[in-house]
Write a structure and sequence with these properties.
about 230 residues; alpha/beta; Rossmann fold; Arc Repressor Mutant, subunit A; five-stranded parallel β-sheet; four-stranded antiparallel β-sheet; about 20% strand; globular
């Protein structure tokens, strides 16, 4: 069974070989590019289902390649890099990456992030009804149910939850959430976000102190997890 085609853009031979073995053994077709220019060309000539992109490319920064890809490529992009600074991670996520993993990485975690990014693609294309098991979100009707009981959410709480649901599995940065929910003039007012995330957790989580849906990515933002 073919689970989809993944384009790897990375100049490290050992990393490309490891990814090739890992991905092919999990029924993915793998294509490889050794620099940004080649990766852009390959992605344009034959659109993959997902791209794994390194930041430290020999010809051009992966941040620049990411921006160029996001001008037209709408499917998942996962950053795989040795660069682990909060600044690099936030920059990549704000520029449209679905996820960011630091080398060295665990193959099981990478595969989980790939599945999550591909589910996000499916959510974008399919029904507006998102079923998370104990939590159901109807984006068209603006109805949220927990254990089949309708929740009363404020307008801002719903706006945030809808953003998360549409990007299930993707890390959403603080600045992105603040900009989308309150506008560009509020991207530095993170206290707004902390208050509303706490309120949302009280309503949608079984245990707000041990959330399983709204997960904190320390220093970066939050990730919404549907069914585990």
């Amino acid at each position: 069974m073919n689970n989809g085609e993944i384009l790897v853009i990375d100049d490290e031979v050992q990393i490309r070989k490891l990814l090739e073995i890992t991905l092919q053994s999990n029924d993915f077709v793998v294509k490889e590019a050794v620099n940004g220019k080649e990766g852009l060309l390959m992605a344009a000539n034959h659109t993959p289902d997902l791209i794994i992109l390194d930041i430290g490319l020999p010809d051009e920064s992966g941040h620049v390649i990411l921006k160029k890809l996001r001008e037209w490529f709408t499917k998942g992009i996962i950053i795989l890099s040795v660069q682990s600074s909060e600044e690099d991670i936030v920059k990549a996520l704000d520029n449209g990456a679905n996820d960011y993993l630091v080398k060295p990485f665990r193959t099981g975690e990478l595969l989980a992030r790939i599945r999550s990014a591909m589910r996000t693609n499916t959510n974008d294309e399919n029904s507006s009804l998102i079923d998370c098991g104990d939590l159901q979100i109807d984006l068209n009707a603006r109805i949220v149910k927990k254990n089949n009981e309708t929740l009363k959410l404020t307008s801002t709480e719903y706006t945030l939850l809808a953003l998360f649901a549409r990007n299930e599995g993707k890390v959403l940065t603080h600045s992105y959430l603040l900009r989308e929910a309150w506008g560009p003039g509020h991207i530095n007012e993170s206290q707004y976000l902390r208050v509303y995330i706490a309120q949302l957790r009280k309503k949608i989580e079984e245990d707000p102190n041990r959330p399983k849906h709204l997960i904190t990515e320390s220093g970066v933002g939050y990730r919404f997890v549907g069914k585990s």
